[in-house]
Write a structure and sequence with these properties.
This protein is mainly alpha-helical and 435 residues long. It has three domains: 1-41, no CATH class; 54-290, no CATH class; 298-433, no CATH class. The protein is 55% helix and 5% strand. It has 24 helices and four strands. A two-stranded antiparallel sheet has the order 1-2. Strands 3-4 form a two-stranded antiparallel ribbon. Strand 1 and strand 2 form a beta hairpin.
Length: 435
């Protein structure tokens, strides 16, 4: 089935951040399979240019890495790579605020990119033993006789099988299996904590453990295999499939749909690319229920705004500019990551979005220059110019009527201000924030 214009717009917004006219034309007429293959082709991905990460200046490195990722998301010729990396960053949530090692956060970012389309067991193992994860969920202090259960619990609840698929006894056994998988620790000579992963055999519990009804001498690596390719495979496949569907399609997948995707995932040997492909090719992804069914989270909203307005990427400080919106890269609110859709509908987050756009109403000149002379044309032409700029290709009748009323009033009372107001009014309308 060939993609219509509305199909192309829907697809581009989901596999990327915007749907510019040129890309709409490039995808329109393609088959679904051809469109998905095109989006999943990351061969044009640019090399990772390491941001300025200075160990003695953690927060400087933190801010620089945030700016680096925003620049990459805006400029990337393979936006699905960035969207998928953002998904894994949320699925395997870790925060620099607690990890306090920007090098460890950078190392985890590279894992998401290098392993995120491959085998899930490989991805899970590499993320689980990464310094960022060990520090964030407290496994750096997990030792025989001093078992720390946070890591074992979250590994199951959040990263693999989900709630209801394990017992408290499984939490204890899982945690015991992960004893000794720690970090180097305090370096007295250098005066800082070395967060490099290290396995300490003397701290590992080598005793028999009963996990998921199986009694044996479980080690960390064994548990990962069991979770992904053992007795808990279907539960893990369902959990990951459900979360990925909600990220790319809509918020309410049926159990039948989740089971179907899980089966595809399992039959592909738990290959993440195969799962994502199945989601993007599924009839329900293209159905009306998936259209305009997601609310752009603050990162997606920011990237879309930067792309359509052409804000100079030499203008940094996106950390503090985006802070009021409630979603700071590399700093999720807790181990569960950020919420989705309705999570972002609140007085506080709405105010944060308005303040973010307001910050560009006067500077840089290139942005409000987009609408130079807009007040001199007709109401209909001015409103259409705003819609076209913000890629609002099919505004609702209510949105158009509201914009025309605002434009007409502004033109009669303070027309000189319209070119500034448009920078905030355009992206605040529901038609820009819902995709």
């Amino acid at each position: 089935m060939a993609l219509s214009e509305s199909d192309a717009i829907h697809f581009l917004r989901r596999v990327g951040f915007t749907a510019p006219r040129g890309k709409i034309n490039a995808y329109k007429g393609l088959s679904r399979t051809a469109a998905v293959n095109k989006a999943l082709d990351f061969s044009a991905s640019k090399p990772l240019n390491v941001p300025n990460l200075t160990y003695t200046n953690q927060w400087g490195g933190f801010e620089d890495m945030i700016d680096w990722w925003y620049r990459r998301m805006v400029k990337s010729p393979t936006p699905l790579e960035e969207k998928l990396t953002l998904f894994w960053h949320n699925h395997f949530a870790c925060s620099q605020e607690k990890v306090h090692d920007i090098q460890a956060m950078w190392a985890q970012q590279k894992i998401f990119r290098n392993k995120g389309l491959g085998n899930f067991e490989t991805l899970l193992w590499n993320v689980s033993k990464s310094s960022a994860m060990l520090l964030y969920i407290d496994n750096e202090s997990n030792r025989k006789g001093e078992v720390q259960e946070n890591f074992g619990r979250e590994l199951m609840e959040l990263h693999t099988v989900g709630v209801g698929e394990y017992t408290e006894a499984d939490v204890v056994a899982m945690s015991r299996a992960w004893t000794g998988h720690n970090v180097v620790g305090w370096n007295a000579a250098k005066g800082f904590t070395d967060s490099t992963y290290r396995f300490y055999p003397e701290h590992h519990d080598t005793g028999q453990k009963t996990l998921f009804g199986k009694r044996q001498n479980w080690d960390a690596r064994d548990t990962i295999t069991e979770l992904v390719n053992g007795s808990k495979q279907r539960a893990t496949a369902r959990h990951v499939a459900r979360k990925m569907w909600k990220w790319f399609a809509h918020d309410h997948p049926s159990n039948a749909l989740v089971n179907e995707l899980a089966t595809t995932f399992i039959n592909s040997n738990m290959n993440c690319k195969a799962l994502l492909r199945a989601i993007l090719l599924h009839n329900d992804f293209w159905a009306p229920v998936s259209r305009n069914a997601l609310i752009r989270n603050p990162v997606e909203l920011t990237v879309a705004f930067l792309k359509v307005t052409g804000v100079p990427l030499s203008d940094p400080h996106l950390w503090w500019r985006t802070l009021p919106m409630g979603m700071t890269l590399f700093e999720p609110p807790n181990v569960a990551g950020w919420g989705e859709n309705e999570y972002w509908i609140s007085t506080a987050t709405s105010s944060g979005r308005a303040n973010f756009f307001e910050g560009y109403m006067w500077s840089p000149p290139k942005v409000h220059g987009l609408f130079t002379g807009i007040e001199n044309g007709s109401v209909a032409a001015g409103v259409q110019r705003i819609f076209d700029t913000f890629e609002i290709w099919s505004p609702t009748n209510a949105t158009r009527a509201r914009f025309e009323s605002w434009f007409r009033t502004a033109k009669n009372n303070h027309s000189w201000f319209i070119k500034h107001d448009a920078i905030q009014v355009g992206p605040l309308c529901p038609d820009f924030q819902v995709i």
